Amino acid sequence: MSELLPILRVNPADMPETAIVVGDPFRAEAISHKLANAKELAHAREYRTFVGEYESVRLAVVSHGVGSPGAAVCFEELAKAGVKTVIRVGTAGSLSGDYKAGSLIVSTAAAREEGLTRQLVPDGYPAVADGAVAAALYEAALEAGAPGLVGKGITVTVDAFFSGVVELPHEAYRKAGAVAVEMEIAALYVIASLRGMRAGAIVALDGDSTAVDEGYDPHRNVVAEAVEAEINAALKAVVKLARP
Ligand SMILES: O=P(O)(O)O[C@H]1O[C@H](CO)[C@@H](O)[C@H]1O
Ligand SMILES: O=c1cc[nH]c(=O)[nH]1
């Protein structure tokens, strides 16, 4: 039987205990360029796996694609490989007038407005960040700075990016004080809780969440600068967590 993880196509023995996960395979590659001794272990489907060192801490950088079901496959296989700490570095839409494009948000918990986790745990089960990971990310983000503000709060994980004829739940969550909406954090937090990993997430805001249906443009400089800032913050957080 193959030693490789069936979907990531990586040998578990090659995986460090810490992983940064991102939706975009090109973002994974960009992060790998910041690592010493970086090496790509595999590129299977949307999953690219790099390993390397940052300030002498070994870590993996893995892309999980768009949406919770595909991302869950990645998170489950990371757990099977013995990964203990997972940090998602993503993009999200803003639900708050206070946080514009270019701001960074550390997700303290995620509303489970997707379908994947309903097939894993009961409806009342929470999707929460690990406290130490969230604290390290927030501290590192304040130090890294961003073109916008740095904040923390509840994020919302949905399945539908563009809306159909049914109203998405964004407005109710906006009124309830959630700050951002994206597509994978709830899956990460639930799977991490089930599989004994600690997890956290930071997102760069690419515009108001309602903008996705009216000329979504995640390629502006302000977004690229915020993504660069959150990558640097996540790498610093990895070091803070490895050497508290
Ligand atoms: O930028 P990433 O990490 O992919 O995150 C966000 O961007 C994608 C949608 O464009 C979804 O995956 C969403 O969660
Ligand atoms: O899921 C996402 C990601 C980025 N921006 C959004 O509005 N939604």
UniProtKB/TrEMBL annotation:
Top-level taxon of origin: Bacteria
Catalytic activity, reaction form: uridine + phosphate = alpha-D-ribose 1-phosphate + uracil
EC numbers for this chain: 2.4.2.3
Ranges where the Nucleoside phosphorylase domain occurs: 19-231
Record-given protein name: Uridine phosphorylase
SUPFAM superfamilies: Purine and uridine phosphorylases (SSF53167)
Signal peptide: none
Cross-referenced PANTHER family: FI09636P-RELATED (PTHR43691:SF11), URIDINE PHOSPHORYLASE (PTHR43691)
